[in-house]
Write a structure and sequence with these properties.
By secondary structure, this protein is an alpha/beta fold. The chain is built from 18 helices and 20 strands. The strands form four sheets. Strands 3-2-4-1-5 form a five-stranded parallel β-sheet, sandwiched between helices. Strands 6-7-10-8-9 form a five-stranded mixed β-sheet, with helices on both faces. It has a five-stranded parallel β-sheet with strand order 12-11-18-19-20, with helices on both faces. Helix 13 runs parallel beside helix 14. The two termini are 52 Å apart. The mean pLDDT is 93.
C-alpha cells in the first residue's frame, strides 16, 4: 500500500525526471493536476486508471481534503498509485499536506522531486536567478492568497535581502505585489519580468521595471500560468535569451502521425522551440492473417517490398502469427520505399537492397521495374489500404507479384477536442502530415475547419495532393524524410 508523488516539472516530458517517467510507465492509477502537459500524460499506460483532480464541473478545483481522501482510498486497493503534480511536489504544491494525510492513515509514500517553474521559467527567459555580479540569494514566494484574504508577505524583509524574488501563482495579485515592493522602499526602476507558460513552446515574457510592469503585462495580454521575477538579474534577459530565438518558438504545430511513430518528429520540433500538440489521427492495427502469409510463403519469392516502417514490424509480427521467423525470407532481396523504412528494417539486421531516389509508391514501382528480372517474383507486404500506383505499375510491366496486407490503417483519435479548440482559438500554425491517410483522418476528426488558417507540412507530393484537395496551404518536404520535413518547416516565414 503506497503512493508515489511525482513532480511533473513546468512543461513537457523533456523536463520530467527519468525516475518520474519510469514510475509513470508502471502506474496502475494516476491522480493528476490541471497543468500537467498532455505529452507527460501520454506516458501513462493505456489500461491505467486516470483521476483528474484539477477541475470538476464548472471548472472548480477538487478540494484538497477530497484529494487526500482519494489518495488513501486508491492506495487501499493495493494498486500502484502515482500522484502527478505540476512543478515540484513540495514547492507550493501541497505535497506536504498530502504526505501528512497518508502518514496519518498508515499509507507508505515516496516523493520524486520535479523541476520547479520558479527556476525553469526564468532560465528559459534568459534570466539566471543568481549571479555573483548581481545578487547572492534567491527567494521564492507564493503570490496566491487564500480566498477572501490579503497577501501575507513581508515586503520590507524581501527588499532588505537584495536578492532575486520569484513569485509563483501571483499574476492576479501583480498590482499588490508591485505596490508592496515600492512601499517597502524598492527602487521603481528595479528590473522585473513576467513569464507565462514558462519552458513551453508558447512561452511569452515581458521585461520592464516594477514601476511599469503591470501596465506592460496588461498591454501584452499575458495570462496565467505565469511567474514574476524581480531583481537586477532581469537585465540579462535579452543577452542570455537562448529560447525565444529558436526558429520555431511561438509556433504551435500539430503532429498527426501514429502514436508509436510520432516521437522523433515531435522531439525535433520541440528542440526548435515549437509548442507541439501530439494528435495521432490514425492507428496501425496488425491483421490476423498468419495463415494467409504462411500459405503465400509456401511459394518461392525473389523480392520483398515494404512501403512503410510500420510495415516492417507488421511483417515480423505476421511471421510470428504464421509460426515462422525471418529465416522464412532467407535469400530474398528487400525493396523499401525510403530511408525510414530502411532504418526500421536494419533494426532486424537486414539491409535494404533497393531504395528509390524519390520516396513514394510511383518511384518505387519504377525502380523495381528497372531492377527486377523477368523470371523474378515480388511479394508486397503492406497496409490493406495501400495506394494502387505500385501494383498497377507492376501489373502493366507484367511482373509477377502478390500483394499481402499485414496491417490496416484506422482513422482514430481521442484528440479531436484539442485540435478543435486550437483551431477555433486561431493558435494552430502548422499541421504535419506524413501520409495521405493522416490528411483524411485529420479532416474526419475536426468539424467545419477553415483549412486556410494553417499550413499543411507534408512529407511528399502524394500527401500534399490530398491536402490541396481540402484547400490547405501546403509546404512539401524536398525528400520524404522527417529531417527534410524539419528543414522545410524551418524555411517557412515566421
Amino acid at each position: 500500500m503506497k503512493v508515489i508523488l511525482v513532480g511533473a516539472g513546468p512543461g513537457g516530458r523533456d523536463l520530467l525526471t527519468l525516475r518520474g517517467a519510469e514510475v509513470l510507465r508502471q502506474a496502475e492509477v494516476v491522480v493528476y493536476d490541471r497543468l500537467v502537459s498532455q505529452d507527460i500524460l501520454d506516458l501513462i499506460p493505456q489500461d491505467a486508471e486516470r483521476v483528474d483532480v484539477g477541475k470538476e464541473n464548472h471548472n472548480h478545483r477538487v478540494p484538497q481534503e477530497c484529494i487526500n481522501e482519494i489518495l488513501v482510498e486508491l492506495a487501499q486497493t493495493g494498486k500502484q498509485v502515482v500522484r502527478l503534480k505540476g512543478g515540484d511536489c513540495y514547492l507550493f504544491g501541497r505535497g506536504g499536506e498530502e504526505c501528512e494525510y497518508l502518514v496519518e492513515h498508515g499509507v507508505d509514500f515516496e516523493v520524486i522531486p520535479g523541476v520547479t517553474s520558479a527556476l525553469a521559467a526564468p532560465a528559459y527567459a534568459g534570466i539566471p536567478v543568481t549571479h555573483r555580479d548581481y545578487c547572492s540569494s534567491v527567494h521564492i514566494i507564493t503570490g496566491h492568497a487564500r480566498a477572501g484574504k490579503e497577501l501575507e508577505i513581508d515586503f520590507e524583509a524581501l527588499v532588505r535581502t537584495k536578492g532575486t524574488l520569484v513569485f509563483l501563482m501571483g499574476l492576479s495579485a501583480l498590482p499588490q505585489i508591485m505596490q508592496g515592493l515600492l512601499h517597502a522602499g524598492m527602487n521603481e526602476y528595479m528590473p522585473a519580468a513576467v513569464i507565462s507558460n514558462g519552458a513551453r513552446g508558447n512561452q511569452k515574457k515581458v521585461v520592464a521595471t516594477i514601476g511599469t510592469l503591470e501596465a506592460e503585462v496588461q498591454a501584452a495580454g499575458i495570462k496565467s500560468p505565469a511567474v514574476i521575477v524581480v531583481g537586477k538579474v532581469c537585465e540579462l534577459s535579452q543577452s542570455l535569451d537562448w529560447f525565444t530565438p529558436l526558429p520555431l518558438h511561438g509556433k504551435t504545430i500539430a503532429v498527426t502521425r501514429p502514436k508509436e511513430r510520432m516521437g522523433r518528429l515531435s522531439g525535433k520540433l520541440r528542440a526548435l522551440g515549437a509548442d507541439v500538440l501530439e494528435c495521432p489521427c490514425i492507428e496501425t492495427v496488425l491483421l490476423e492473417n498468419g495463415a494467409l502469409l504462411r500459405y503465400t510463403l509456401s511459394e518461392s519469392w525473389d523480392w520483398v517490398v515494404l512501403t512503410s516502417p510500420a510495415g516492417v514490424s507488421a511483417m515480423v509480427q505476421g511471421l510470428e502469427q504464421a509460426g515462422l521467423d525471418l529465416r522464412a525470407l532467407y535469400g530474398m532481396q528487400f525493396a523499401v520505399i525510403g530511408t525510414g523504412t530502411a532504418q526500421a528494417l536494419a533494426q532486424y539486421g537486414i539491409k535494404a537492397d533497393l531504395i528509390p531516389e524519390v520516396y513514394d509508391g510511383a518511384h518505387l514501382a519504377e525502380t523495381l521495374i528497372e531492377t527486377v528480372q523477368p523470371e523474378e517474383k515480388v511479394l508486397i507486404l503492406r497496409a490493406a489500404q495501400g495506394a494502387p500506383e505500385l501494383t498497377e505499375a507492376l501489373r502493366e510491366a507484367e511482373i509477377v507479384f502478390a500483394d499481402v496486407p499485414t496491417y490496416e490503417i484506422l482513422h482514430r483519435t481521442d484528440r479531436a477536442p484539442l485540435l478543435q479548440e486550437a483551431m477555433e482559438a486561431g493558435t494552430l500554425d502548422i499541421v504535419t502530415f506524413t501520409s495521405a491517410s493522416t490528411v483524411r483522418a485529420f479532416m474526419e476528426a475536426v468539424d467545419n475547419v477553415d483549412c486556410t488558417k494553417f499550413t499543411a507540412l507534408c512529407i511528399g507530393e502524394q500527401t500534399a495532393n490530398q491536402a490541396r484537395a481540402y484547400g490547405m496551404q501546403v509546404c512539401v518536404a524536398e525528400n520524404a524524410t522527417i529531417d527534410s520535413m524539419i528543414e522545410a518547416v524551418k524555411a517557412l516565414p515566421i
